[in-house]
TrEMBL record:
CC annotations in GO: mitochondrial large ribosomal subunit
GO BP, sorted A to Z: translation
GO molecular function terms noted in the UniProt entry: structural constituent of ribosome
Name used for this protein in its record: Ribosomal protein L55
Organism of origin: Microctonus hyperodae (Parasitoid wasp)
InterPro entries from the UniProt entry: Ribosomal_mL55 (IPR018615), Ribosomal_mL55_sf (IPR044884)
The organism's taxonomic lineage, starting at the top: Eukaryota, Metazoa, Ecdysozoa, Arthropoda, Hexapoda
Amino acid sequence: MNTKLPIILNNITKSITFVRQLNCWTAGITKKHRKVYERAYPVHLVFPNGSTINIQYHEPRKMIKLPLDLSKLSDAEREALLEKRKPKTKIVIEEDIDDDYDENRYVNYNRR
């Protein structure tokens, strides 16, 4: 009895087939589920010194920027770069308005 069960299950699974309806609307509803793209895409590679080259990359991107090596920078350059990365503080300017308006100067203009 136990030897027939795998044979029966094998026959049942062979008889069940799943049909997926692929049409033009499928790509509009879902995304392409792939980890590696089939072709290579032209991408700009930016080196830390600012020079660029064109490479073929496996994902469609516009630009790839390589990071700077902080150990190769001088102390002044390193401090300037780290200062740029810090968030900027907003300067609040409070204006002190001197109100020296005298309405009595303009009283004679309103009389008619």
